[in-house]
Amino acid sequence: MKKIEHIGIAVSNLEEAAKTYEVLMQEKPYKTENVESEGVTTLFFKSGESKIELLAATNDNSPIAKFIAKKGEGIHHIAFSVEDIDTEIERLKSEGYQLISDQPKNGADNKRIVFLHPKSNHGVLVELCQERTD
């Protein structure tokens, strides 16, 4: 693990949340992106090397919509940057970690991603991210 890449925050209203974080962070978001495979619109803020990703559902069946319905708005996941996501997947599986999927997929902000099940991380959803080179 190289560093914490970002913290993902599930929000009900992306526009309202964006205004809140613009005031908090004293800057505008640097990127908004739809990730259709996850049924989510993401909005990123950056402060130094740290990032905050706001996540809003684009449909009622998306993981974010289900998360908000169950737990309300709030921290959804912590993402760690890795050099080689495939090697990390194998390492963590061999250590007994439960992954949500066995293969990485394309995510927001030009990343290959995979999630570790919260049961493996004391209730915290963990995302591994590797910069895409394609």
Tell me about this structure.
This protein has 134 residues and is of the alpha+beta class. The chain has one domain (3-131): 2,3-Dihydroxybiphenyl 1,2-Dioxygenase, domain 1 (Roll), CATH 3.10.180. 23% of the residues lie in helices and 39% in strands. It contains three helices and eight strands. The chain has helices spanning 14-25, 63-71, 85-94; strands spanning 3-10, 31-35, 40-47, 50-57, 74-81, 105-107, 111-116, 126-131. The chain is globular, with a radius of gyration of 15 Å. The relative contact order is 0.20.
Q: What is the element layout, followed by pairings?
A:
Elements: E1 3-10, H1 14-25, E2 31-35, E3 40-47, E4 50-57, H2 63-71, E5 74-81, H3 85-94, E6 105-107, E7 111-116, E8 126-131
Parallel strand pairs: 1-4, 5-8
Antiparallel strand pairs: 1-5, 2-3, 3-4, 6-7, 7-8
Question: Taking all residues together, what is the mean pLDDT?
Answer: 95
Q: Bin the strand percentage.
A: 35-45%
State the CATH superfamily name.
2,3-Dihydroxybiphenyl 1,2-Dioxygenase, domain 1
CATH secondary-structure class: Alpha Beta
| Total number of strands | 8
Shape: globular
Run of helices and strands:
EHEEEHEHEEE
Put simply, the count of helices is: 3
Low-confidence stretches: none
What gap, in angstroms, lies between the N and C termini? 22 Å
Number of domains: 1
What structural category arises from helix and sheet content? alpha+beta
Which sheet architecture does the biggest sheet show?
Answer: 8 strands, mixed
From the coordinates shown, what is the CATH architecture? Roll
CATH fold type = 2,3-Dihydroxybiphenyl 1,2-Dioxygenase, domain 1
Q: What is the helical fraction, as a range of percent?
A: 10-25%
Give the neighbour order of strands across the main sheet: 2-3-4-1-5-8-7-6
Radius of gyration: 15 Å
